[in-house]
Amino acid sequence: xxxxxxxxxxxxxxxxxxxxxxxxxxxxxxxxxxxxxxxxxxxxxxxxxxxxxxxxxxxxxxxxxxxxxxxxxxxxxxxxxxxxxxxxxxxxxxxxxxxxxxxxxxxxxxxxxxxxxxxxxxxxxxxxxxxxxxxxxxxxxxxxxxxxxxxxxxxxxxxxxxxxxxxxxxxxxxxxxxxxxxxxxxxxxxxxxxxxxxxxxxxxxxxxxxxxxxxxxxxxxxxxxxxxxxxxxxxxxxxxxx
Length: 242
What we know:
With about 240 residues, the protein is an alpha+beta fold. Among the domains are: about 1-45, no CATH class; about 145-235, no CATH class. Helices cover about 55% and strands about 5% of the residues. Strands 1-2-3-4 form a 4-stranded mixed β-sheet. A hairpin with a 5-residue loop joins strand 3 (about 225) and strand 4.
């Protein structure tokens, strides 16, 4: 098990461009493979994966319209949170709904189910935005706390300021992965503060690197605040040489 997990972390770090430590965080939050899925004997070779995919495609094509409708409903019920009206295997449900012939009696159920899928997606989007907003508010408070003594970095050498930058990123990362994603440093000497969140953008960075924080970030030697997905970056003026 340990060796399989290690391979997944290493491969994920190379493919996704994330540090292995961040992959470990994502695993812990259920955003990557579960331990059961990376157990010895479950990871497939490309040939085995292709054969399994082809077999699933054959089974899918052989299903009747009634079976597709039942499978769509089953997928939508899987993991559904009735209190929040979110969850369910929506992508799988949509695939089954698309497979139902327009002339089939079951097609009358397609439109209402698609409407429900759209409502759930909207509800999930709103929920994720609320979570992100709450986490950004917490991160702003944490940044204010962490940068309170940033001017003290003037007494440190480059190694000391580097250690401070890494510690700041780690403190933000420990707040909550679902809200901010994985937070870490990047570039030589850890001079960029990076947020690996699927919805990270310039607007999110502007709310994190607020004017009152920029001075402290510069004092620590940060030169940029960036999104790991490439959708946003704030280049900070380099801190004066000490």
